[in-house]
Structures are given as C-alpha cells and as structure tokens.
Amino acid sequence: MDWEQKIVDYCEYLQLERGLSSNSIDSYTRDVNKLVNYIKEFEVNENPNSIQKESIQLFIYEIAKIVSPKTQARIISGLRSFFDYLVFENYREDNPLDLIESPKTGRTLPDTLTDGEIDLLISTIDLSHPQGERNRTIIETIYGCGLRVSELINLKLSDLFFEEGYIRVLGKGNKYRLIPIHEVTIKYLNLYIHSIRNKITPNKEDSDIVFLNRRGKKLTRQMIFTILKELALKAKLNKKISPHTLRHSFATFLLKQDVNLRVIQQLLGHESITTTEIYVHLDNEYLQEVVEKFHPRSRKL
Question: Among all residues, which ones are annotated catalytic?
C-alpha cells in the first residue's frame, strides 16, 4: 500500500497548486490519516488507487460512533478532496466519495460579543504585567481589524502602515490584503510595541513578528485560544469565546451599522460573498429591516 507517498504528494499539491497554508494542509491530511489508521486497525487490504465506496462507508460508520455530525461531515469533505486529487492525477477513474452523503448538521452560529462585553473581557486583564498589555493589544487588534488567528500571529512590524492607516495581512491562499486600521487600535499597538515588545530580544526568525512571548518567540494559535478562554472565565462570560468570536463580533457590528456586505467581505478576506452571508448570520429579522429601510418602493408609502 502506498498511502504515505500519496499523502505526501497530496500535501505538495495543496501547497503548490492551491496555495493553502500549513494549517489548512494539516487539517486536510488529518482526515485522510484517520482513514489510513482505520485501514491498518481493521487490516483492510486496499490502497488509495483501489479502495472502494464500501470500505469507506464502513469507516464512516465507525467514526460516526465517536464524532459529531459536523466533524463527520468535515472528514467526508476532506476525503472527497483527497480522492478528487487522485482522479485529477489519473491515479483513479472515480471518486469513491461521490455517492456518499454528508450528514445534515444544520447551521450553528458562533457566539458574538457586544462592545460592552469586549470591554468587560479587557477589564479583567492585569495591565501591570507586561503580558497584560500584550494581551489587551491582541484583543483590540483581532476585534478592531477582524483578523483570523493565523493572520494575527503572523502579523509583522513591516506590515504596519500607521501613517497610511492600513495594515497588511497574509490571509488564506497566501494572499495579502490591506485592512484599514482605526486610531484606537493604532494607539494600543504603538503602546505595546514601544513599551513592551522593545524590551524583548526576539528570536532571529521572529524578529519581524509583532506579538511575541517573553522568550522572544512567535505566539502559537493555541496560546491565543488559551488567553481568551482564561479571560472569559475571569469575566464570567457565559459564552464560548475564541479568536473567531472576536472576528465574528467585528463583522456583526459592521453589519448592524448597515455597512455594505461587499465591504465586509473584503475586510474579512472572503473569496465568496456566500461565506460572508453565513459569517454575519443574515437572519430573517435583519433582512426584513433592510428591505423596509432600503426598498425602492418604500418612499411611496
């Protein structure tokens, strides 16, 4: 069986042809490796070029016992992508996932925070500690610019154009975009950079990174999740809070201020407007308000 080599080739394809980040590639290959582990455990004697729908269906039955429908749907999607690649490279003539349906998961919307709850979250930070000033700036930057966590941890000093009022971030697909930055966010970034970060000796490879730990290394995604989780507990916010929550709250706030959906799409770095519509949960009540306010015939009432 040549699963290992096919996965290596698949990773190169995702990186070179589709321009995906290392985090996205890890997510895709993690799903394929779940299938490989199943094959090894149950001694299924099939390679990636020959495995059939029936074997994959049995694998899905097994994982359905231990994972949620949402995770199950993600794994099926990841496997479908892998086998699409094999078809594309002429290793296979068909995709065994084509006739396998994903479970219905519904649409679960993430929690959002009000501006007051953001302030409450920040108020629990111990600003007498150097890491406190950094953590406040992290929240202000994610919330103030609507960044993904990967965009935040990879933000560079050379990407800050305060005089022009923009920052540059590297988003999905290794694509850069410029994001307008508010003077409040600029104030906290300057405070952190000039009073806290300049006292840290960064590692050589992280010398241009904005947010560092006390040893001068770039922060990890998990560290940002941990910081927000601990602050949410201190603030007694009965919500599941993550970097995504702050990004989602940024988008939702703009939507409620009647900011054009295309503008929000550009700020968030979404390739498709459909993604933005889901992200900012255009519910029926809000849509009705927009129609009543902006409908072309409303002036005749």
Answer: 148, 172, 244, 247, 270, 279
